[in-house]
Amino acid sequence: MPPFNQVVRVLGDLVPTTVLSADTAIKTSPGVIYWISLSDTAALAIELNDSTNNNGTDRWAVDFPADGYGMWKFDPPIQCALGIYFDVYCGTCIVVVGNRI
């Protein structure tokens, strides 16, 4: 059997955020969200907003159980006209968002 070779597809300027654990403006101009991964030792609720602050339109949200983990791929990607704002209701989560810069 031939050796397994991992293939990573890079989509131009698609980048993951740094690890997020607090409310954060991911992007302050229009953007696109391709995926999100998260884990947490406590229950949490998160939202991705089309905004540069916490006053924008919720584009995606999830309530998550304690000791959970998950990854969501958005196809089609989530379009944000104003910016991308990450809103979290817990301080112990580990979240990374794949977006286009």
Task: Describe, in plain words, how this protein is organized in 3D.
The chain is mainly β. 0% of the residues lie in helices and 56% in strands. It has a single domain (14-100), classed as Jelly Rolls (Sandwich). The protein is built from no helices and 8 strands. The chain has a 4-stranded antiparallel β-sheet with strand order 1-8-3-6, with no helix packed on it. The chain has a 4-stranded antiparallel β-sheet with strand order 2-7-4-5, with no helix packed on it. The N and C termini lie far apart (40 Å).
Summarize the structure in short:
The chain has 101 residues and is mainly beta.
How are the SSEs placed, and which strands pair?
Layout: E1 14-16, E2 24-27, E3 31-40, E4 44-50, E5 57-64, E6 68-80, E7 84-88, E8 94-100
Antiparallel strand pairs: 1-8, 2-7, 3-6, 3-8, 4-5, 4-7
List keywords for this structure.
single chain; about 100 residues; mainly beta; 4-stranded antiparallel beta sheet; about 55% strand; globular
- Choose one word for the global shape: globular
Q: What's the number of domains?
A: 1
The secondary-structure class comes to mainly beta
First-residue to last-residue Cα separation: 40 Å
Low-confidence stretches: 1-10
Q: Count the DSSP helices.
A: 0
CATH fold call: Jelly Rolls
What integer value in Å does the Rg equal?
15 Å
Would you tell me the overall average pLDDT? 80
CATH-scheme architecture: Sandwich
What's the CATH class, please?
Mainly Beta
Strand percentage lies at over 45%
Compressed to H and E, one letter per element, the order equals EEEEEEEE
Number of strands: 8
